[in-house]
Design a protein that fits this description.
- The complex is a heterodimer of chains A (about 110) and B (about 110).
- Chain A is an all-beta fold and about 110 residues long.
- Helix content of chain A is about 0%, strand content about 50%.
- Chain A has no helices and eleven strands.
- In chain A, the strands form two sheets. In chain A, strands 2, 4, 5, 6, 9, 10 and 11 form a seven-stranded mixed β-sheet that branches.
- The relative contact order of chain A is 0.33.
- Helix content of chain B is about 0%, strand content about 50%.
- In chain B, strand 7 and strand 8 form a beta hairpin.
- Chain B is built from no helices and eleven strands.
- Classes of the chains: A mainly beta (about 110), B mainly beta (about 110).
- At the A-B interface, strand 4, strand 5 and strand 10 of A face strand 5, strand 6 and strand 10 of B.
């Protein structure tokens, strides 16, 4: 079946704009993760959903970042009042069941804030 | 907190050379250990994993052994190909979230 998809693939925003990044996990996958990958760095955990419940949001860098997964499938990561330091690749991953440790990653959304 | 240290890159090798990329970690308990690979312009792909001490993960000629005593999970391949050029990430997973290293860029020359 299809893998994890993300949209848009690229996003350019002016500082202060709000952006919304979408993730479509693999069908039937219960767990969904967001990671932020700065240039030349490894991905860093942002938040974790099990179905529609956001169980961990400890990695969100500020209250400008908000994630939701209202129906337990598609997820949206929203960044309000974007800043230049938000420029990064945002990766979404999903796994089949909560105890399944293998995560399947999407291609990412590259966000550039000018 | 949990952390991982990877060999600094870039690593440049000739085709058919032997590859080692070192990875050590600190974690509470006994995490599962993963290697992911990121080819240019693509997302992260699982390369191999090991879930308990002394397990060996292997895939596409790559191998890594879970060494609890040295808290290491070094990646090896006996003969690299140009198509192996990518960034490699080591990641322990103690519960549900990965702790990624900074990545090691591998460049293989023909």
């Amino acid at each position: 079946g299809a893998g994890v998809s993300q949209s848009p693939r690229y996003k350019v925003a002016k500082r202060g704009q709000d952006v919304a990044l979408r993730c479509d996990p693999i069908s039937g996958h219960v767990s969904l993760f967001w990671y932020q990958q700065a240039l030349g760095q490894g991905p860093e955990f942002l938040t974790y959903f099990q179905n529609e419940a956001q169980l961990d949001k400890s990695g969100l860098p500020s209250d400008r970042f908000f994630a939701e997964r209202p129906e337990g499938s598609v997820s949206t990561l929203k960044i309000q009042r974007t800043q230049q330091e938000d420029s990064a690749v945002y990766l979404c991953a999903s796994s089949l069941v909560p105890a399944e440790e293998t995560q399947y990653f999407g291609p990412g959304t590259r966000l550039l804030v000018l | 907190g949990d952390s991982v240290t990877q060999m600094e890159g870039p690593v440049t090798l000739s085709e058919e050379a032997f590859l080692t990329i070192n990875c050590t970690y600190t974690a509470t308990g006994y995490p599962s250990l993963f290697w992911y690979v990121q080819y240019p312009g693509e997302g992260l792909q699982l390369l191999l994993k090991a879930t308990k001490a002394d397990d060996k993960g292997s895939n596409k000629g790559f191998e890594a052994t879970y060494r609890k005593e040295t808290t290491s999970f070094h990646l090896e391949k006996g003969s690299v190909q140009v198509s192996d050029s990518a960034v490699y990430f080591c990641a322990p997973s103690g519960t549900y979230k990965y702790i990624f290293g900074t990545g090691t860029r591998l460049k293989v020359l023909a």
